[in-house]
Amino acid sequence: PCLFQEDRITESILAIIQAIGDNPEREGLRDTPHRVAKMYRDLFSGLGQDARSVLAAGFEEGHQELVTLKNIPFYSMCEHHLLPFFGSAHIGYIPRGKVVGVSKLARALDVVARRPQVQERMTHQLADAVYRSLKPDGVAVVLEAEHLCMLMRGVRKQGSMVVTSAARGPFSR
Fold it and tell me: How does DSSP assign 74-118, residue by residue?
C-alpha cells in the first residue's frame, strides 16, 4: 500500500516556494502547498495498486474475436521531471471466451498512469495486466502522448507525440 505523507509534501512545496525566492505567505501562494499535496494524492493514487485486481471481474461470454477500446484519455507524471504527460490509449485483446466490462480497461489504465512513470513502462504494465488477468489469446496496447518535459523545457518541440506499443500473444510475432 502507498504510504502517502501529505504533511511532508506540504512542507516540501513550502520549501520550494521559498527556494525560488517567492513569498509563501502572499495571498496567491498561501494555500498552495496544501493544494499541491491534495493534488498529488490524486495524481499518484495508482501507487500500491495492482491493475490486475481491477480486471478480475470478467465474465464468460464466448466471444473470441477482437475487442478494442480506443481513444481512452489518460494523464501521468514523468518520473524524470515530475511534469505531466497525457494522451490517448488504445487497447485490443482477443478473448478466450472471458471478457471484461470496457470501463475496467479504462480503470486499469488509470491505475498504471497514476504513479511516477515513463510511457514505455506504462505501456508494458497495461499490456501485462490485461494479459495476465483475462488470459486472452493476445493483447495489443498503443499509447500516444505529449510530454510537457519536452514541450515546455529542454528541446521545446511543440506538437511532438510519443507513441509506444506493447503486444502479447500472436500480436507480438
Answer: EEEEETTT--EEEEEEEEEEE-SEEE--HHHHHHHHHHHHSSEE-
Please report which residue ranges of the chain form alpha helices under DSSP H: 6-19, 32-43, 51-54, 102-113, 119-134, 148-151
- Name the β-bridge partners of 97: 63
Q: Which residues are catalytic?
A: 78-81, 119, 147, 149
- Per-residue model confidence as pLDDT tens digits over 40-62: 999 999 999 999 999 998 888 88
Which pTM was predicted?
A: 0.92
| Residue 163: C-alpha distances to residues 128, 133, 146, 151 (Å) | 18, 24, 9, 15
C-alpha cell at 122: 506504462
